[in-house]
Amino acid sequence: MKSMPATTVFTIGELSRRTGLPVKTIRFYSDRGLLPPTRRSGSGYRLYDAHALARLELVRTLRELGVGLSDVARALARETKVRDLAAHHVEALDEQIRRLRLRRAVLRAVVKRDSELEEVKLMNRLAQMSDEQRRRLVEEFWTEMAEGLDVDHEFYAWMRSAKPELPDDPTPEQLEAWIEFAELIRDPDFRLLIRKMSERQAADREAGEYEQPSRAQQQNWPGWITDARAALEAGETPDAPSGRALATAIATASARPDQDPRDPEYRRALADKIASGGDPRAERYWQLMATINGWPPIPSTNEEQRFLVAALRS
Question: Where in this chain does the record put each HTH merR-type domain (predicted)?
Fold first, then answer.
């Protein structure tokens, strides 16, 4: 392509034919100072040289990329580098894409759930929360659950360390899980449940009776749950031989040296302790967290826990 003489000038109409941009658009850019005329003709028409043509192409490219007029003006005035302008615009586009993906996930969830208007509003509001807002919601929940109580702060720090991390492009299931999770931790009944758990822990600490599950309990718990499931599937009751054997194993592994695992009173107290932490809503908390964060699914063990509790009490 032959280069144009430096003296070549164009009218707005000629610029329009060369670039394909409407005359009205070029005139608008010129009026806004983005494309100042090189000079005017004797009749007062605006004329533009080859440099102005190149400038117009840059304006066109930046506008097609979605850059605002004020940012285009700054780039043309060399108040900012095009590279920096592009970097900022990438960040803005990333955020816009994130929001569009969330909207898409909300609409998919609406279709799946056949939601009513009020639920749609709630879903959209919760979905638009930032990662920081979601983390803060969990932080405030656990802070309130332990406020003013002498609890095991290491344990509560571990509980609040798990945060819901909703992906930029969540599945409808992840979005639904987040909405249910947010509703759960704001539910007065659930908050009362967890607060009472905290109060019991504080009371146990004050009485010198608080202790974390022993290593034997932690190691054997999955196996006890598996055995309880097998007994249930076999149609056995908690007072059957399999249930009694499980009760003995749990009591023996859980007892301190000063406790008798055969003592019925000790077994009932142990059963009460297991039952107090086995509320389905507490389990649901972690199941929802797993779905939101893409962790392996957490199956429900409520039925198995009830079997173990009943076996200890029998």
Answer: 9-78
